[in-house]
Amino acid sequence: MRTPPNERLSPDIADTPKARKASGPAKGCPERRCILSGETAPRETLVRLVASPAGLVLPDAQEKAPGRGAWIGVTRGQLVEAQAKGRLKGALARAFKTGDLELPENLPQMVEDALTRVLLDRLGLEMRVGSLILGTQRIAEAARGGAVALLLHARDASEDGRKKLDQAWRVGREAEGSGERGLELPLDRNALSVALGRDNVVHLAVAGSGADDAAAARVMKPLTRLMHYLGQA
Prior knowledge:
By secondary structure, this protein is α+β, with helices and mostly antiparallel strands. The chain is built from eight helices and nine strands. The longest helix has 22 residues, at about 105-130.
């Protein structure tokens, strides 16, 4: 849903403390404008960039850095192209109202790394509070019982393993025949295993059912942002 024209942010002032305070909490101001495309979109699909006092531009994947911010909603490939052609620096100069900026050559990779770190940290937190289910058998049992809100597979999971758990999930959701499948993460089993402190994490599920899907929502926020940036939305 598009933001009405009179409520859209200026293309140059993508984000400021004053604007955030005036708009209320995130749920009251869910959209931001991409400084490159000029399009407004849910902030879950955009990435915030900030400039240090010295002018160094860095990703703010957690949206907590102080000061003026600028939002980008493009994919990594589009960001690489925009940086190479100088469009990114020009858009940032307008957003930050200064031309004294330094853009790291590896900024696109830095953004991906930052988004990945936020997702892995979130999965680690959910693991510690008991919201994650690991192990193929345990996931299958919980899925058939309708106790899985979100089913996730490592990028290098076997197709056979995915199909078995997807089927169990559909049974528990009373969605047999729908073709609904769990999500393929942009992470391999090694990254997941290291982040969660377990061996060979290939599949994982977020517990929840019905209205009790708060943990799934917490995981989906950083996952949506990373997948959008990687062009896998």
